[in-house]
Amino acid sequence: MTAAAHPHDHDITVGPDAIDFMGHVNNAHYLSWVQDAVLAHWRKIAPPEAVAQHLWVALKHEITYRRPAFLDDRVIATVILEKVQGARAFYETIIRRGEDVLAEVKSSWCCVDAETLRPARLASEVVARFFPNEKI
Hints:
The chain is α+β, with helices and mostly antiparallel strands. The chain has one domain (8-130): Roll (Thiol Ester Dehydrase, Chain A). Helices cover 24% and strands 40% of the residues. The N and C termini lie close together (7 Å). Belongs to the 4-hydroxybenzoyl-CoA thioesterase family.
Protein backbone atom coordinates (compact mmCIF):
# COMPACT_ATOMS: atom_id res chain seq x y z
CA MET A 1 0.00 0.00 0.00
CA THR A 2 1.47 3.36 -0.98
CA ALA A 3 0.78 6.67 0.72
CA ALA A 4 -2.36 8.24 -0.70
CA ALA A 5 -4.19 8.74 2.55
CA HIS A 6 -5.67 12.08 3.45
CA PRO A 7 -3.94 13.87 6.33
CA HIS A 8 -5.86 14.18 9.58
CA ASP A 9 -5.43 17.25 11.80
CA HIS A 10 -5.76 16.88 15.55
CA ASP A 11 -5.93 20.05 17.68
CA ILE A 12 -3.91 20.20 20.89
CA THR A 13 -4.10 22.75 23.66
CA VAL A 14 -1.01 23.03 25.81
CA GLY A 15 -2.04 23.07 29.46
CA PRO A 16 0.00 23.72 32.62
CA ASP A 17 0.40 19.98 33.30
CA ALA A 18 2.52 19.64 30.13
CA ILE A 19 5.11 22.23 31.17
CA ASP A 20 8.40 21.05 32.66
CA PHE A 21 11.04 22.71 34.83
CA MET A 22 12.49 24.47 31.76
CA GLY A 23 9.23 26.30 31.04
CA HIS A 24 8.25 24.37 27.90
CA VAL A 25 6.37 21.20 27.05
CA ASN A 26 8.07 18.09 28.40
CA ASN A 27 9.18 15.73 25.61
CA ALA A 28 7.03 12.88 26.92
CA HIS A 29 3.87 14.84 26.10
CA TYR A 30 4.66 14.80 22.38
CA LEU A 31 4.26 11.01 22.35
CA SER A 32 0.94 11.31 24.13
CA TRP A 33 -0.16 13.80 21.46
CA VAL A 34 0.86 11.37 18.71
CA GLN A 35 -1.14 8.59 20.33
CA ASP A 36 -4.20 10.81 20.71
CA ALA A 37 -3.94 11.98 17.08
CA VAL A 38 -3.50 8.49 15.61
CA LEU A 39 -6.40 7.08 17.62
CA ALA A 40 -8.63 10.04 16.68
CA HIS A 41 -7.78 9.39 13.01
CA TRP A 42 -8.74 5.71 13.42
CA ARG A 43 -12.05 6.54 15.15
CA LYS A 44 -12.91 9.18 12.54
CA ILE A 45 -12.49 6.96 9.47
CA ALA A 46 -12.98 3.35 10.55
CA PRO A 47 -16.54 2.03 10.71
CA PRO A 48 -17.94 1.78 14.27
CA GLU A 49 -17.86 -2.04 14.27
CA ALA A 50 -14.14 -2.02 13.36
CA VAL A 51 -13.44 0.52 16.11
CA ALA A 52 -15.25 -1.73 18.62
CA GLN A 53 -13.40 -4.88 17.47
CA HIS A 54 -9.84 -3.51 17.27
CA LEU A 55 -7.35 -1.76 19.50
CA TRP A 56 -3.99 -0.21 18.61
CA VAL A 57 -0.71 -0.73 20.41
CA ALA A 58 2.30 1.45 19.66
CA LEU A 59 5.35 -0.58 18.64
CA LYS A 60 7.87 2.13 17.85
CA HIS A 61 8.22 5.91 17.80
CA GLU A 62 11.08 7.78 16.21
CA ILE A 63 10.82 11.44 17.09
CA THR A 64 12.82 14.46 16.01
CA TYR A 65 12.26 17.54 18.13
CA ARG A 66 12.64 20.82 16.21
CA ARG A 67 11.30 23.59 18.49
CA PRO A 68 9.76 23.82 21.96
CA ALA A 69 6.07 24.34 22.67
CA PHE A 70 4.84 26.57 25.48
CA LEU A 71 1.83 27.07 27.73
CA ASP A 72 -1.34 28.02 25.84
CA ASP A 73 0.20 27.36 22.40
CA ARG A 74 -2.26 26.20 19.76
CA VAL A 75 -0.66 23.09 18.36
CA ILE A 76 -1.84 20.79 15.57
CA ALA A 77 -0.71 17.20 15.07
CA THR A 78 -1.17 16.18 11.44
CA VAL A 79 -1.15 12.41 10.99
CA ILE A 80 -0.67 10.64 7.69
CA LEU A 81 -1.16 6.92 7.43
CA GLU A 82 1.68 5.80 5.17
CA LYS A 83 0.82 2.11 4.83
CA VAL A 84 -0.89 -0.88 6.35
CA GLN A 85 1.01 -4.15 6.22
CA GLY A 86 -0.57 -7.19 7.85
CA ALA A 87 -1.56 -6.16 11.37
CA ARG A 88 0.81 -3.18 11.32
CA ALA A 89 0.18 0.45 10.42
CA PHE A 90 2.87 3.04 9.76
CA TYR A 91 2.23 6.71 10.45
CA GLU A 92 4.00 10.00 10.05
CA THR A 93 2.93 12.77 12.42
CA ILE A 94 3.99 16.39 12.09
CA ILE A 95 3.39 18.57 15.14
CA ARG A 96 3.13 22.28 14.33
CA ARG A 97 2.48 25.63 15.93
CA GLY A 98 1.36 27.79 13.02
CA GLU A 99 4.01 27.35 10.34
CA ASP A 100 6.66 26.19 12.81
CA VAL A 101 7.36 22.45 12.89
CA LEU A 102 7.83 21.45 16.52
CA ALA A 103 8.40 17.73 16.00
CA GLU A 104 8.33 15.01 13.36
CA VAL A 105 7.39 11.49 14.36
CA LYS A 106 7.52 8.18 12.52
CA SER A 107 5.61 5.46 14.32
CA SER A 108 4.46 1.91 13.84
CA TRP A 109 1.41 0.39 15.45
CA CYS A 110 0.00 -3.11 15.83
CA CYS A 111 -3.71 -3.74 15.43
CA VAL A 112 -5.02 -6.20 18.02
CA ASP A 113 -8.33 -7.95 18.39
CA ALA A 114 -10.18 -6.27 21.27
CA GLU A 115 -11.33 -9.62 22.67
CA THR A 116 -8.27 -11.85 22.31
CA LEU A 117 -5.61 -9.08 22.40
CA ARG A 118 -3.78 -10.92 19.61
CA PRO A 119 -2.53 -9.20 16.45
CA ALA A 120 -5.32 -8.82 13.89
CA ARG A 121 -5.31 -7.89 10.23
CA LEU A 122 -7.87 -5.34 9.14
CA ALA A 123 -10.39 -6.25 6.47
CA SER A 124 -9.49 -4.78 3.07
CA GLU A 125 -12.74 -2.76 3.10
CA VAL A 126 -11.62 -1.06 6.32
CA VAL A 127 -8.14 -0.32 4.97
CA ALA A 128 -9.68 1.06 1.76
CA ARG A 129 -11.45 3.79 3.78
CA PHE A 130 -8.05 5.20 4.73
CA PHE A 131 -6.68 5.10 1.18
CA PRO A 132 -9.62 6.33 -0.94
CA ASN A 133 -7.55 6.88 -4.08
CA GLU A 134 -5.85 3.49 -4.11
CA LYS A 135 -6.93 0.09 -5.30
CA ILE A 136 -6.62 -2.41 -2.48
